[in-house]
Amino acid sequence: MRQPDIEIYLKDADYQAVSAWLEAALGPCTPWQRKGQTYKCQAGDVPVTWLPNAVGKWHSLYLESATTPWEDDLACARAAHAALGVQIRCAPGSWDESQSEEDADRWIRIDTDGESEIIWRTG
Fold it and tell me: Domain of life of the organism in this record (predicted)?
């Protein structure tokens, strides 16, 4: 089932490289606009938010649309890792408040060693 939005976390990636990848995948990017700690742009028809150091050295990339080429966070994370060569983390699926806190700490890590499920306490 297609997710209504996408969020992945990237380690040691800069937004210029991310911009180039988004432009190739989604279409032309508008210039990044800084709003407080976040940066926003539009890639094709997709509103994008970049939050540097959202969790330590991890940067959050949030795509606010169901009309991306990726069905879910994991598909996007795989594509980002392939394009950028950095470690990516994403939720294994949608999570909502009715699920346990422990489920919120389950993440998929994608790096040069492949994919693995990890416990990542972000809160």
Answer: Bacteria
Window from 7-21, 25-39, 58-72, 95-109 with minimum mean pLDDT: 95-109
- Cα pseudo-dihedral 48, 69, 20, 112, rounded to 10: 110
Residue 73's Cβ-count burial label (10 Å; 0-12, 13-18, 19+) is buried
- Which residues 6+ apart lie within 8 Å of 8 measured at CB? 60, 61, 73, 76, 77, 80, 88, 89, 90
Residue 114 near residue 108 (C-beta atoms within 8 A):
no
pTM greater than 0.85: yes
pLDDT for residue 62: 97
**Tokens linked to 16:** 């210029």
- Sorted by where each begins, the domain ranges of the chain are 6-119
The amino acid present at 22, given as its one-letter code, is L
